[in-house]
Backbone:
């Protein structure tokens, strides 16, 4: 008598990292990196904020450094998208510069201000980062400066900014103040923000 074949039990799947919303996880990790910086952010801190086990973090992102790279990339992308939306309806170069400064000011108040800027915070840590991370941060700062130069030059072309102004020097000054707002915002809201922006815009005349 031939016995019927007993179907083999389905093979157990190997353990996989549990499914999670990657962007949400990165955003939660971003808060930790913004508040504490790269070196002071422990895997335990990140695990708690992301709602993931340390093992899941390592499986998904390999290590803390790779996670930071992903977070830094997302931070730049989200910030740039938000800024583009605010600038798209500005009529001229001067108005775009004013809106950019307001963007930094708005980011430097209340809970958003206390969390800090990932670019500014990473710039402070620059000497303690490895070469590749340091270069990543440097390039982000240079892109900010070059963008300001382009806005000043746009203003000079459309007549809203003095043609005699040295665009490179003015961009450097505006960047220092914009970044300074984010540093102050870690401690308290920037005071007299509207007057500060008004004073800064006067250098464009």
Residues:
């Amino acid at each position: 008598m031939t016995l019927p074949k007993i179907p083999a039990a389905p093979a157990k799947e190997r353990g996989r990292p549990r499914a999670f919303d990657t962007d949400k996880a990165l955003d939660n990790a971003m808060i930790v990196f913004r508040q504490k910086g790269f070196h002071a952010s422990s895997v335990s801190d990140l695990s708690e904020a992301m709602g993931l086990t340390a093992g899941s973090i390592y499986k998904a992102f390999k290590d803390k450094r790779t996670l930071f790279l992903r977070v830094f990339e997302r931070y730049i992308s989200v910030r740039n998208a938000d800024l583009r939306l605010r600038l798209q309806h500005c009529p001229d170069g001067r108005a775009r510069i004013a809106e950019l400064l307001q963007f930094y000011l708005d980011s430097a108040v209340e809970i958003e201000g206390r969390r800090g800027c990932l670019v500014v915070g990473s710039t402070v840590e620059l000497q303690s980062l490895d070469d590749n991370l340091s270069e990543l941060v440097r390039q982000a700062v240079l892109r900010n400066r070059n963008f300001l130069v382009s806005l000043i030059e746009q203003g000079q072309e459309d007549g809203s900014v003095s043609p005699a102004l040295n665009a490179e020097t003015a961009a450097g000054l505006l960047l220092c103040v914009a970044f300074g707002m984010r540093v102050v915002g870690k401690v308290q809201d920037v005071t007299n923000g509207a007057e500060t922006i008004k004073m800064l815009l006067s250098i464009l005349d």
